[in-house]
Design a protein that fits this description.
With 241 residues, the protein is of the alpha+beta class. It has 6 helices and 9 strands, in the order ααββββαβαββββαα.
Length: 241
């Protein structure tokens, strides 16, 4: 890096560091927390009215807080919200802080919707019929979107209401263990999108959902992704496919 570029980099970093602010714990009272909770909810759950109550605020350095959110939705959802002072780091040094807020509201809303749908367990095992499972998942996606349509404008649910794809996110049980699988199904061709990296073939479905599920269970999905990448882009020198 030449001297001009180095100087520019240093100036940018100094500007970044000096622009960071810190939260004074003495300023964090219940009104501060309530405002922080409401800012989070307005940003992430737009379009649905709610009432939030601050339940507790611990007078420690982090000012840990808890609250309850009651949404005026069809489920009358009640969920929990939390906050604390989070340090901001740069080069292993604290350069500021902000009040971090998170909640379990999205999970509770999905859980409430699933109770209405009477959702199946999406189990993958040795004798799974992948066509049946794929159809069950696609049916579930449509049913879930219908149940949570009040949240169509909400940032937390933007994947569920994309015009480009249908979205599925559930624990797929594979015999003794499970893991959460996020699946994107192209709205235009009904196939699973494997590449969302921004290349020429991103956001286009490439394989059937039934095949995707079978490859997932057999631990062959990565090999299929490499095969398709090779087909589209050619072998990259030095990479063993």
């Amino acid at each position: 890096m030449n001297k001009k570029k180095m100087l520019f980099f240093v100036i940018i970093m100094l500007a970044f560091v000096t622009s960071c602010e810190s939260v004074d714990p003495n300023d964090v009272d219940k009104n501060y927390v309530k405002d922080a909770f409401e800012e989070y909810l307005d940003e992430n759950f737009e379009g649905v009215d709610y009432k939030v109550t601050v339940n507790s605020l611990i007078k420690d350095d982090e000012r840990n807080s808890t609250g309850t959110v009651k949404f005026n939705d069809k489920f009358k959802t009640v969920c929990s919200i939390y906050g604390y002072i989070q340090d901001e780091m740069f080069d292993q040094s604290v350069i500021g802080s902000h009040y971090e807020v998170y909640s379990d509201c999205m999970e509770v809303i999905i859980e409430n919707a699933n109770k209405k749908i009477n959702k199946l367990d999406f189990k993958i095992k040795l004798d799974t019929d992948y066509e049946v499972l794929a159809n069950d998942i696609k049916t579930y996606i449509k049913a879930l979107k219908k149940e949570i349509k009040e949240y169509k404008k909400s940032k937390e649910f933007e994947d569920y209401f994309s015009d480009e794809y249908d979205y599925f996110s559930e624990d797929i049980i594979e015999e003794e263990y499970s893991h959460n699988e996020s699946i994107y199904i192209d709205s235009y061709n009904g196939m699973v999108i494997l590449n969302r990296s921004g290349s020429n073939f991103s956001m286009r479905g490439e394989i059937e959902l039934s095949e995707y599920l079978k490859l997932l269970y057999n631990n062959e999905l990565k090999a299929k992704e490499k095969e398709l990448d090779y087909k589209h882009n050619g072998q990259i020198k030095g990479i063993d496919y």
